[in-house]
Predict the structure.
Amino acid sequence: MNGSCRLINESLDLKRSSPNRLVPLLFFIYSKEHVISTQTPTTIRLSRRQLLLGAGAVSLLTLVWQSYRHLGQYPKAGFKCTTLSDREVNILQVIGDWLIPPGGGIPGSGGDDITIQRIDSMLLGVPEHKRFLLSALPLAFEHGTLLFAFGGPRLTEMSDSARQEYLQNWAESDNLIQCQLMAAIKTLYGFGYFDRDDVLQACGLPYFCGSVT
């Protein structure tokens, strides 16, 4: 794993403690490699290289997209999305609230409306022929009990305790593909959450025209 994505993965858990310890992640987000405007998240450029997706992970996401993208009924999203379906919104809300829970001195969560809308806008910057990989990413977590175990309820149908255990087991897995997918979803939330104006302000980081000053 390269240093940039390692910073994201190590920093996501810090929301529960001191916001000041998030500064390394936020400075990475604003590095010259990633041109980000706090008002226009579509300027973020995501690539397979940034998400560290190997051939096996890409093959699995392709299979998931072809096989599972129409399964299940999901509540309608409470806000308008351009790229995400109601299915993807519901799954991302569940994963986000587990990965970046509310509280800890920083506003919002990984599953709140603002973060999900930013992820939705972010996907507009991804070429359409590659966007399906990012759309398939939450589906892999939703149907992981079929992909990596012997079946069971999908993520959004689990009880809270079962959901916590399932996602924690995924995070601690030494399966290479699961590790790559977990790193990828953390990177997605890293860009979607930690570049929010309210989060930057809570961390005491000044910014001007999308750059730390």
Q: What stands out?
A: The chain is about 55% helix and 0% strand. Confidence is low (pLDDT under 50) at residues 1-8, 16-44, 208-213. The CA atoms of residues 37 and 130 lie 23 Å apart. The radius of gyration is 16 Å.
